[in-house]
Amino acid sequence: MRNALKIIGIIALTLLQPFALGQAAEPPAPATANAAVPAVKVTQNDLQALQLRLDSLKQQISQANNYNQLEGPQDRLQALIVDIDRLSTALLPEQAQLRAQLEVLGPAPVEALVPGKSDIAAQRTVLTEQKNTLDTTLKTLETLKESATNLLTQISGIRRSMLESELTLSTHSLLNPAFWSPVLNPSPDDRQRLQAFFNELGVTAGAVWQPGQRFSTVVLVLLALLTWTLGRRMVERWLAWACMNRVPEGRLRRSSLALASVLATLLATGIALELLFYACTRHLPLPSMLATFSQEFEKLAYTCVLITGLSRALLSTQHPSWRLPDIADPVALALQPYARWLAGALLVLVTLVQISNAAGMSNQLVIAGRGIAALVITGLIIALLVRTSTTRRAMAAAGDAPEAASTMAGLIYTIASIAMVTSVIALLTGYVSLARFVTYEVVWVFILLAGFYLLMQVFKDGCEYVFSPRQASGKALKELLGIGDRRLDQVETLISGFGRAGLLLLAVITLFVGGIGTTLGQLISNIVAFLGGAGLRQFNIIPGHLFNAVLALVLGIYLIRTLRRWLDNEFLPKTDMDPGMCASLSTLFANIGYALVILLTLSSLGVKWTNLAWIVSALSVGIGFGLQEIVKNFVSGLILLTERPVKVGDLISISGVEGDIRRINVRATEIQLSDRSIVIVPNSQLISQNLRNVTLGGSAQGVATLELVFPLDIDPEQVQTLLYDTYCEHETILDKPAPFVRFSKLTPDGITLTVTGYVSSPRIVGTTKSDLLFEILKRLGAAGIELAKPTAPAT
After folding, report:
1. Start and end of every Mechanosensitive ion channel MscS C-terminal domain (predicted)?
2. Is 41 buried (19+), middle (13-18) or exposed (0-12) by CB count in 10 A?
């Protein structure tokens, strides 16, 4: 619980520190000369105490023999950094107020340098002395923090080096009797160190069991036991009742019940451990050995509790309908006891190893204890994997439907199997520390994956509930935003996807950011430092800017869409521009607007283009290979929108395709054919190929031409007049240019006459020709004139 509170303090201080610094950096309102300075004092004794804590930690680090002995100093060093930050943050407002008061008084004139000239000069002198003292204190705190931070980095490197050396260290194999010798027959020095540990334990037990303290000790221990047993069950039942009665039916109820079970277990464990710690230290602090052991045991207890709590929540053998993962009932029942067995084995065996570490026993005995723990844990995990595979094969043989195959589940099973084979080989070849590291990492990865899987399910189900149109929250969002069910579902999908992606990224960071040789506190500190700016500052991304970036993106998109609707519906229709030009301007405005919004969003994040040089290089390579066509079509689309060789509404013909341009997009152009179908043509073809634009310029005319073949015995002048009159009398034929009839051809089969007329638009040529042909045939029949009949070919 103490480490948990420290971790929460680290997170809160790191998240709130930018705001505190930001407030301190702003000059306060001008104060009067007599305003009182807040009484936040850091005396010289406080600074000396911090220095003594740092020196003590340096001494402990220099005396460490293995990397486990550095975990406690590393956590205490983080606590020291938190205390230094707290003091510095408390002094910053006082420094800003003193600076503001001195600015109000103004600079000291020359005559004010003589003592006793005025009250203002005396007050300025006092404030200057206070500010100088405060500046010195802040510089001292900054120096201490820098030393502690450097020491923290050195510890990580030392622990990493120690662990790497231990992992590559070859000792006796488990099959060698020399491996078991330090356990079965400890050396006198190990016996003496173990006796010293139990002596300290006896001293602590005697202090809490002395007359007058026994009743309170028994009460505290019983309270701890009751909290762990009855208290945990009561909290779990209360949370389950709250989920059953306050959460609506659906998947959110299942995931919230699973999360409530884990939280109840962790809460009961934390309270029980705190009661036990208070029972042992309410009069005297723990000796050095027991203090180190208690810190490591607390971490181990939380690890075991997480194993059992997450397993019980995800397997849910008592309520199979509440089970979140897709696991068949026989498989879940087969897996159920292994979590308790694994947690119990870890609690017993690792506690013994921690006792040997805290007592400072020999490396041979410590390595032997690690080997035994790794052997038992490896055996349990192998048994779990074999039992799972056997149960699934039995289900398949019985004809029962197993759970759906999952790539992730198969990958986890394969990696766990490979890890266990590696652990067995390492134990048999004498690389005990390597086997211990592999088994512990498998347990850690299980806790990590199970915990983040539960969080992602809760987040997903929570989004589905909040944005459901059947719930009150969804209905309120629909009314507030003025959107429909489909759009609300899209919003839910986006938020759920981004949230789960963020949790998955956090899981990956949690898995890799700590690396080898980091404790749980250091891991949390590294995550907070990364998310708080230490890692993201390489891209100049600060969490305080994320809200501004999201706000700029949302408002920018909304503003562009609003302005585009205003252009399309109000402004552009009132101009003299043709519809094609209006559509081109609207599309060009939207593209430029979206580009500016992206630039504004990146600027709000603090992204500098110099830090994105590698992205530009990668894009250059991609453009040279896979993105060449896309970029070519994009540039061609910009040329079409600016030079406008074609525009929306034009009738064009290209590569045998003739139709009206319906829309010019960034990548391709939509052409609507006469049958109302759409042909998508890449923009680059409209630039690089020969294109016929029938309506370019706005004054194109259509030509309606008919060729008719008549017999040789007709009266040519009569037929010419008939055809000419028919064209002239048709309402769509223009007077200028006037229609005309031409003698085209004379053959043994007949006389070919061509009649031509002009219409106002190429789009009505087909309809006009059809009407004219019907009218001509009607008039020829009335005049008794027949068309020539084709001559049969000679046989």
Report:
1. 710-787
2. exposed
